[in-house]
Structures are given as structure tokens and as C-alpha cells.
Description:
By secondary structure, this protein is of the alpha/beta class.
Amino acid sequence: MKVLTVVSHPRKDSLTFAVAERFEQGLKDAGHETEIVDLHRIGFDPVLREADEPDWFKVEQKYSPEVEREIARMKNHDALAYIFPLWWYSMPAMMRGYIERVWNYGFAYGNSKLHHERVLWLTLAAAGLKDLKKRDYDKMIEHQLNVGLAEYVGIKKSKVAYLYETLSGDAKHTQHLLDQSYQHGYNYSNF
């Protein structure tokens, strides 16, 4: 399987990127091909501008060169993964802007749906499991990603996976998170 992995974090030396590297290694060890897109390093502009606003009356649309490049990249993969820190119980604005601009009308929804077999949303949460369950934040996040996004664009297999307590500072716990990341990559085709 060819998996496109999109990562969002402003710091390259973050746990988010360490997680992405271990996830990528798991994918490769399981025999998958992968490409990592670092939204900050490619200078992706998350702001939806006029060129990328959908025209509901056009069947075929041409978007900005940046969005057309990302659409072409997505077309070259048959599965997706998004890795990001959980901020305000959602994805960072950079990742959200990527979804809004690239998963656009005529490509991801409308007269066409995404062809991707599956999507994994691997999110790093500073909170613990108990904290995310306290007010059903976990259910809210999962519904938004699995139903509001993936199902809407035709992806039948969607999973949200959490890495908890990412700010603990404990080396043993951090290693455990990295091991979990590897397993998510290695077992990617089994969810």
C-alpha cells in the first residue's frame, strides 16, 4: 500500500516528528511505501483564498498551483495518515487549513470522492485517557474525524489513535509512545 503521511508541528525536533519517524519505519517494515509531507517545511499556506474557494456551479474546477500539487500528490497514494498534536481538542490550524484547501469540492466531495482505502488520525494528546473521556472529548474528536471528514469524502476505514500524556517528560513513557507509533505503522493495514 502507498501511504501518504501528512505531519503538522512547527518544530522539527518535536515529539510529533519523532512519532512520525517511528510510524514511517513501522510502515516500511510492514512492506508499505510511504511519503511524509511536513506542512511547515514545505511552506504550506493554510489560509483559504479566493482561488481555492469552491464554485458549486462548476463540475470541474482548477485550484491554485499549491492545491493542485497536493491533490496530485494525494492521487499517487491509496491510503492516508495524519499526525498532529491535539490542540484545543482539535487539529492545529495548519492541518485544518490543509484539509479545507486540498480536500476540496470536485476532488474530495461533490461529484467526486476520495479513492483512498483508509485514513489513520494519529494525534498526540498532552491529556490522559481519563481527561479526554471526562466530557466525551474523545467521542467528539472521533466523530468529527471519522464521520465529519473521512466518511463525508468516501473513506470507509477511518481510525483515530491517541498517544496520551505526551508532555510527561518521562523517558520511559516517551519510549512507550514511540513504540506505539511504530506499531500503528506496522499494523496500519489491520485496522
